[in-house]
């Protein structure tokens, strides 16, 4: 039997192994989520519904028309928010950043809620949300520009201010909208993915896939931006252009998620921290780890939201706030290196 000497370095799981473990955990979370709901189903009924999609039964309807689309959306939203948060943290070199904190989600919520009130088709709601999220992201970037320590403080404060302004604008939209639209927008703002169909899944997955493709082409830029603006320029990177493109890709991912799930905060803040501890700061490993980690968090949170007060349902955004706010306070007290 081998003996490890005191002080000797311990074996560290490889990055590939961490990714495999995260993917397996995401599948496990999806499998558990299938069995959770206000209507209890026996395991045999669940398996029969999965293996016989053409069957006509209550279990089939619950599985294929309600639970599976919801699980697919939860995975998409979690992956999108996780990757968007990782990109923003690298871009701003700030561990306190995510789409929620920087006001990107709030800006997307304003234009998305306005689109809902105006009767805009869901296919175009993410486009409207993208415009609002990108506009707020640009404002925050311009105000907090700089490499000093005060830039990080300005970033967070500007994000808080922008979020407050966006909340006021959403209130105006609610006051101007009809009763039915107001109820729809209020329920949507609380955060949740209930009542969605496969068409919603397809549209959301399309936008998020576009954001992921853009992120793949930005891996080198993200890794260079981690070194700071001066070092990035020394490596031949056009810093201003790279920052805008990264910001646009992150805003697109956040907008696609906000359009379908409402305000779901802190996923993009928490997940990249855990992923960075597993696979390091290299964007080529950090982004996929953040995608799997985000999917796990939202799948698990959605399952808990359905089970904790069944047959009623706790809004997803409310549940994640109870976890995310303490996490934010801990990180703010003891910031980590990127």
Question: Can you offer a commentary on this structure?
Answer:
- The longest helix has 35 residues, at 58-92.
- This protein has helices spanning 15-34, 43-51, 58-92, 104-117, 125-143, 149-176, 179-189, 198-217, 219-225, 229-234, 239-261, 267-279, 283-307, 316-333.
- Residues 1-9 have low confidence and may be disordered.
- It is 73% helix and 0% strand.
- The protein is mainly alpha-helical.
- The chain is built from 14 helices and no strands.
- α3 (58-92) packs parallel to α8 and α4 packs antiparallel against α5 (125-143).
**Low-pLDDT residue intervals, each spanning 5 or more residues:** 1-9
What is the helix fraction of residues, given as a range?
A: over 70%
Any idea what the radius of gyration is? 21 Å
Biggest beta-sheet profile: none
Total number of strands: 0
Instruction: Compute the separation of the termini in Å.
Output: 39 Å
Strand content: under 5%
- Count of individual helical segments: 14
Q: Helix- and strand-based class? A: mainly alpha
Coarse shape: globular
Give short descriptive properties of this protein:
mainly alpha; 338 residues; disordered N terminus; globular
